[in-house]
Fold this protein.
Amino acid sequence: QAQLVQSGADVRRPGASVKVSCQGSGYEFRNYINWVRLAPGRGLQWMGRINPNRGDTHYPRNFRGRLTMARDTSIDTVYLELNSLTSDDTAIYYCVRDGGALVPNAFDLWGQGTLVTVSS
Amino acid sequence: DIQLTQAPSSLSASVGDRITITCRASESVDTFLNWYQHKPGEAPRLLIFEASKVQSGVPSRFSARGSGTDFTLAISGLQPEDFATYYCQQSSITPFTFGPGTKVDIK
C-alpha cells in the first residue's frame, strides 16, 4: 500500500543544520509532497512543498533563506534541509502527500514523523 | 496569512456523546477546509476534505459542513478511539495554515 517512510530521529546543536528524508512507495510518486511540523505546545505548521516531478518548490516567507527542499526521482525520495537551527525548531517533522485529483487540496498520506531535537 | 481559530480548545465527553467543533477563518476559504485527527505517537489522519467530504475509510459518525469562514466538525456517537486532538486546515491560499487544535478527552 502507499506509504511515506522518513529517516530517523536526530539531535542537533543550535546553529547547525538538519536533513530529513522521505521515501514514497506503493504509488506513483508525482503528487506534491508537503512538510508539516508539530512543535511542543505549538500545533501543526506547514513548512512548504515540493513537486517531485518538476522539482519546483514553495516556501512560506518565515522559512525562506534557511529551508531547502530537494528530490531524487531515481529513488522516489524528497528531502528537507533546515539551517541555523534554534530550540524553536525542536519538533516532529512530517512529510505529507497532497491528495491530488482524488483528494484535492488535502493531505491524505503522512509519513511516520521524524523527531528533531535542537539542544546544546 | 489566513488565521484559523477553533472552539472549544478542549472538551470532555463520554462515549456515545455527540460533539461539535467549530473552525473560523479570518477570511473566506470557500470550501478549501480540511479536518485532521491526531493521536499522540501517531501521524495525523485526514478525516474531511473540501469542508464536507468524508475521506475513504473514515467512519460515518464523522461529518462536517461549512463554507466561507465558518465550519463545523461533528462526531455522532463518540467512540473510545475518537479521543484525540482535531485540527482544521485551510488549503485555499499559501501558506496553508492550521487551527490551534481541539483536544477531546474522556469525561
